[in-house]
Amino acid sequence: MKSFFEGIQSLFVDFLLLPMDWLRELELTNWWTANILNWIFILICCGAMVYWIKQLNIFNSNNEDEQDTTAHSFLK
Predict the structure, then answer these.
(1) Quick count: other Cβ atoms within 10 Å of Cβ 35?
(2) Backbone torsion region of residue 16, taken as left when φ is above 0, otherwise alpha when ψ lies between -120 and 50, otherwise beta
(3) What is the pTM of this model?
(4) Smaller CB count within 10 Å for the chain: N or C?
(5) Torsion over CA of 55, 56, 60 and 65, rounded to 10 degrees?
(6) Between the CA of residue 75 and those of 23, 66, 67, 71, what are the distances in Å?
(7) What Cα–Cα distance (Å) separates residue 16 from each residue in 5, 20, 25, 70?
(8) Per residue in 19-56, pLDDT tens?
(9) Is 68 left (phi over 0), alpha (psi -120 to 50) or beta?
(10) What keyword terms does UniProt attach to this protein (predicted)?
(11) Distance of alpha carbon 61 from alpha carbon 43, whole angstroms
(12) What is the DSSP string of the chain?
């Protein structure tokens, strides 16, 4: 059973987490490049937020947005 768990450890440490080790070493030379994945996720989230707000404005301008506080029976 010990060799099974050592095999899992070897899989993660020697293969699957090698990109993380590379990014950790890269941070010592260039912080911006090491965090490129974070910047990509930030840009995706900003784009999704802009799209969501534009859609909210479209529904609001068409008066399709229900703004009644008693929209749910438990709020009456």
Answers:
(1) 14
(2) alpha
(3) 0.59
(4) N
(5) 110
(6) 51, 14, 13, 7
(7) 15, 9, 16, 52
(8) 888 888 988 899 988 898 899 999 999 999 999 999 99
(9) beta
(10) Glycosyltransferase, Membrane, Transferase, Transmembrane, Transmembrane helix
(11) 27
(12) -HHHHHHHHHHIIIIITHHHHHHHHHHTT-HHHHTHHHHHHHHHHHHHHHHHHHHHHHHHHTT-S---TTSSGGG-
CA distance 24 to 33: 11
Closest CA to 34 of 43, 21, 17, 47: 21
